[in-house]
Write a structure and sequence with these properties.
Four copies of one chain form a homotetramer. By secondary structure, chain A is of the alpha/beta class. Chain A is built from ten helices and 17 strands.
Chain lengths: ~375, ~375, ~375, ~375
């Protein structure tokens, strides 16, 4: 009989939906000792959070996150609010002895992230950050292949995250839907929102990043602010590209933008090793491209692996070969892994400490973008 | 407040899982007047159905489908058992006044399908058959484009459904997992299992099929039978290809096999019209290929549409542009549409009568495969 | 020092250009014992053939093919005229003791092709038919892999040749540029023009075709005829699809049309064997898709082979890996192979006799299209 | 009647072959007022240059380039030797009043390139540098579309040139075949060999590059030198990536390496504009990917343009739609354009001065790679 784990979720936006779905779906597809219970959700707008609770089957709702964090019947707090609120909530939750599942990036900057790490480690509470792309089966397969040494010495890592949704000058900044464009709420632009994903995956697959040289740009300098109603300076980075040297000697390049016409959410990465190479992209997330130099030369070529077989990561829990899963499943996998870690008493990565490392790279990137210098990672 | 619709599901195999998931997921993502309640599930094996019920949250279970069909607290019967059981259950359910959601193909043959149609129509119960691929958003988009006349006169329709999972001679036939290889349980091989999907989509997109010339083959003539333990003749078609002439004057070709090494579940179709063409394949189900001859000639080319935007069919219910959904969502959409039709008092295709037309084509194909003659449909 | 081989080319259309280029190019890229000399070309229109001769460097030109065939200084006659002229010229050339390189399809029908075979075999002259696609390096690589047994038992062969250039009703038929639409000059439509290529490749790769069931259609029934100026019935097949059973037990499907909007010259084939599968298409002719079931299952997938390496067929004669060749090179390869065969005293396929077999399949296809019956190949 | 232009080609390696072929092919496919005559070729090794001359049909050969440059019957000197010899030959040729067609990169560094520019401009001789990729039809089409303003404001430019042929430590450096690995002969590694192409295209398509920040690496530090027989330090860059800011306000990223397992010669670029985006890659050089935001949103997607139609750049000179050309054709086009420019009395880009701008960027990149600072382009 599964033990119950009572979830208290704060925030009801896009990530509130993906997480709620993940808690609901995981138990049907994974054999888990813990059963997540949608105990409570929380947001300031009572009407909206009530509707959200009803839709997803939360047993209750709150309008003050402090009340939620204080409730005895909450085991784990899930933080899905804008970045500028992560630290305060996370520290309060840690102090209340709650497990924490926090959206990425972990914080506004390294200093905040360090405080948060200290808090959860002091409290000894389980913690994770929703860098969900690690658990796309194709990405997890890439990790397996690298860890087995199939690539040999790695020479190159390159990752891009390209979008095109902010090209119009008429798009405002700030407010509920567009807080990601408001530097006060988001901390940064594409660096924290998109490159943070790329950096998390890169560190996971390829190891630490040592130094970076970055270039950032804000193409549209002013936008109407939805909170003030005034045209205000845009404080975020619209685009960011950086060069990096990694601890394993490989060279890396990263780029992200919201001005790449034609790309909706095109997160791509490629790794070139001595013996093999790997490519992946989020627009076809169920495939992994694999090049094995060991193949007979006449028939050597990039293989397009349709990652839907029973021996692919996570896929024995879903359908049959050839039938793909989608974006939301990466969250289901993270819930399943988190609960399994809980049962085993093991930390499940990415933890707050893992996310701190990513945050340090983000900060180094932003600093380099300002200074025009190579910057060592924290 | 949503009205409740009590579901009684018979069968707990692969389709039992996809349907159960669909009933659970539809209400969170669609605004529905009817709420499906997982009232009961049913299978002969008590241990297995008990576990299935527990996993999916069915309130109860039965081991005799007749008991389930007789229960007053069941509004709709969902039939997920081998094809040879469809008719008896469906007719009993209709006579009991239950709505019916039946797996495809509707029946073993046209005669059975006609009895079933007569039964549901006499009883006046809502009915549908799970030709789920109609509700993959890219396929639905194809339907929209065709219905808007964007293709003009249609010259060609071609569809394939290629798999490779039965190539080994060591694979047995029959029994729970492999009833699709047993002609007694399945009625036919790839024709009813795979081509039926292709035919349903073709009729939906391109209109009726008039005459067919088919070629069928059973590559491996004998396999051990799991029910008898003996090596027995294989009665199903391993592969089937057919030519067809359609009511709209277009030519069509269809092929299906379980011996196409390298393809897991590669359902593909292509339609060539006077002004535009469409291609789709199940291995990348979130994309639709579109060629518009009206484009400026220098920059004319096949467009790969990533069908994940808010103005694409069904997609405003899911995530954000660029984030793909998967196979199971087609079932969620069918549940949502069925419930919406219920609220409006409208039949939702494909109905039993729609599925009867597909069955007639299947029968004509099998007959042509035997006779070597062109056969008129129905 | 290379021996000279004096070429006399009849016809100056599209194929006249590809052949002339091939004769010019082969000696620079292949180490050949025979040097083709562009001795003479021939067409009825003096002004045009004079310009053609000047452009390509032919030493002389004729306006009557009989004169050309009779010239002592011509060693080989290349026939690039409409199909209805092949037989007479070929037989005359054979009787004059000339080698013959004839465009495909070899003839208007099997009877003609048999006469032609008899003539060249009686005369003992070298002969070949320009089924050039055999010598696209990716296609030749496919042949190597099949001949090495890498596919094992073959289950399926499918080939299409899709075009879209005759969709407009305003396109006339007949005359110099459009003789392929005139049944009197071409003998048939897509069957002889396009499917003949598919059939030649299929027989080469997969062995003989035994029986066929075909469907043909003429979508636009009347077109203005450029020779008569009148609107006349269209006698060719605009589209043709057929099912086939092959001598090796495999099933085959073929389709060709000039009404597939979006496809310019999309010749594709796929072969599914027990152990491996192959795909190729003419729109990316420098690639071969290869699936090897022997690969480790987790990283199994279709490989896209960029056929530009030194160990790929013919490619050591061209550039460096990664740099593709194009369409015309298949003709250069055929010239090189023909000349190499000459040096060795060996016949080089496809010979007239090979082309006769393809012609027999074409005739069976056209007969089946008319009769609606399965037809055995002659 | 065409005027004759006597070519004297120095060097008989890979580029000697591509140029010789281009001179031979251009007149058959383009209607030109000038006819290139293969008057003489030159290399120190008499046996090899004699064979080369015989193969390509050069009327004569020399073993001292100074003799060739001095010959009165030479109109144009084509320089296909290692980079460290470009300057001396080019200046001598200019002083002798010869036109010059020089391989890229123009020189070892900016200082040399400036001397060369001065020399040709002082002498008033026609000059060009073989940045051949500008004349791949798909790339030329990209130029047309950009120049027509179809992209609007440009935000991003990214280009990579990835190879994998030097990964083995056993590969030596230097000597005839491997001079590109010898810094004395090549000046730099991937920067001059590969990135120079990317930079030339970028400037052509997107305008000047203002500042750069680069990272260079030599993965294998020592290799046996073929000239000395000793293991020596490798002086070239094996890999180089750089960030750039362009005069039009766009951000650019560039990367090149010979250590990207799986890529033979994968030159790719992508341009993101306000209204449209473009992608191209050398491994499928006959295609251009095009995204037009102006398309109806439901059917918007990247178009894969098969650049083989008569209204595509250069393609009316070749075959018919659907039939691709290859790598070597870009050189044929450059010859045709050069000769056409000659007839019109116009300079044809890229001239030495154009190539000087590319050289300045290369130098800035190498300087930045050393200093770790952003460097302004000279």
């Amino acid at each position: 009989m599964a033990q119950q784990l009572n979830i208290g979720l704060i925030g009801y936006g896009f990530m509130g939906r993906t997480h709620s779905n993940a808690y609901r779906q995981a138990p049907q597809f994974f054999d888990l000792e813990y059963q997540p219970i949608l105990k409570a959700c929380c947001a300031r707008n009572q009407e909206k959070i009530k509707a959200f609770a009803a839709n997803w089957g939360y047993e209750s709702f709150e309008t003050d996150w402090k009340t939620l964090v204080a409730r005895d019947d909450i085991d784990a707090v899930d933080i899905c609010v804008p970045n500028n609120l992560h630290k305060e909530i996370a520290i309060a939750a840690a102090e209340a002895g709650k497990m924490i599942l926090c959206e990425k990036p972990i914080a506004m900057n390294t200093a905040e992230a360090e405080e948060m790490c200290a808090a959860v480690e002091k409290a000894g509470v389980k913690n994770t950050v929703w860098y969900n792309y690690r658990r796309v089966p194709a990405v997890t397969l890439a990790k397996q292949l690298i860890d087995e040494g199939k690539l040999g010495r790695i020479f190159h890592y390159r990752a891009n995250f390209l979008q095109d949704w902010t090209i119009s000058e008429d798009l405002p900044q700030g407010g509920e839907a567009l807080w990601r464009l408001d530097v006060e709420a988001a901390g940064s632009g594409v660096t924290g929102d998109l490159l943070a994903h790329c950096i998390d995956t890169a560190i996971w697959l390829n190891g630490s990043i040592k130094t970076v040289s970055a270039m950032t740009e804000t193409f549209i300098k002013e936008r109407q602010h939805q909170l003030t109603g005034k045209v205000e300076k845009v404080g975020i980075d619209d685009a960011c590209a950086f060069l990096a040297r990694c601890a394993n000697g490989s060279l890396a390049t990263f780029e992200s933008t919201r001005y790449a016409r034609g790309h909706k959410a095109l997160y791509t990465f490629e790794i070139n090793g001595e013996h093999a190479s790997i490519k992946w992209d989020l627009h076809d997330l169920h495939r992994l491209d694999w090049f094995d130099h060991g193949d007979e030369s006449r028939v050597r070529g990039w293989r397009s692996i349709h990652v839907t077989d029973g021996d692919h990561p996570y896929m024995d829990h879903w359908w049959v070969p050839g039938l793909q899963i989608g974006y939301e499943h990466s969250f289901v996998h993270q819930v399943a892994d988190f609960l399994e870690g809980l049962a085993k008493g093991e930390a499940v990565s990415p933890t707050f400490r893992d996310a701190l490392e990513t945050q340090k790279v983000c900060d180094a990137v932003l600093a380099s973008g300002k200074s025009g210098q190579w910057v060592e990672v924290g």
